[in-house]
User: What shape does this take?
Amino acid sequence: MNRISDANYYTEQYMDSILIQQRLIDSVVPVTETEFFGRKYTTPILMPAFSHIKNLKGRELTGLEEYSVAAKECNMLNFCGMMENEQFDSIMSTGADTVRIVKPYADREKSKDQLRYAASHGAVAVGMDIDHMFGNGGHDICMGEEMTTYTVEQLKELKALSDLPFVVKGVLSVEDALKAAEAGADAIIVSHHHGRLPYAIPPMLILPEIKKALKDTRIHIFLDCCIASGADIYKALALGADGVAIGRVMMKPLEEEGVEGVKALIRRLNDELIFCMASTGFADAASIDSSCLWIKEQYRRME
Assistant: This one.
């Protein structure tokens, strides 16, 4: 390929184009405690909704279980992705507060069954990964299973299956954000799912527009894709995210050191976030805004 079509490249380029202005006088050592779905957590950093990570280096627990243990021990909100109900049980056995994100199966009853199962087996919230509806040539095939399209009305049906908060993952436009709100979503995850769509816009680029569009709602706005440092997390929070999920930056420490490697990564990222907050005069995570960000004006909506 002669031209770069990797959305992750553009996401990293955009994130790196955002600079931070320093404000030190009268600043204090900040705190990062936050609240999601009525529960308090130590940090606005979120675990990713990963799937299919088996036992690494012959250890007893799967990688999914290991990062869930780390989430429990770090007191942070955990997510998990595509899996059968039995594997979800193993995630819940770690004691981590976990959000289960299911796939948009063509077998709609399977999606419903997994959502009901999660609700009755201790999930904090449930949701659907809408950005796996399509693949090249039509509906997506993920791990041998066919996906399909879900409408606003069908998302409403999924929301109504339980009293748990409902999350829509894979929102990358104001239009989908408003449709998720219409469907009754309690949270959205602004994401391009590690670049599934060629040339997808960076999540941080569309985030302020989504935040503005949802300003009169109580919907939590989460963000992921290419998050690799506390400064990245700070920028996302400043642009309107309530929580920020790490992703592939976790894979090396998870593979090499398991639970302890992930915990060390979370401590480092949270310490870096605290440093950025202290250096810009924000005392807590909820108060971070974009007043200390400088952004190169190189992107605009095509007319």
Summary: The two ends are 28 Å apart (CA to CA). Residues 142 and 225 are 20 Å apart (CA to CA). The mean pLDDT is 96. The chain is about 35% helix and 20% strand.
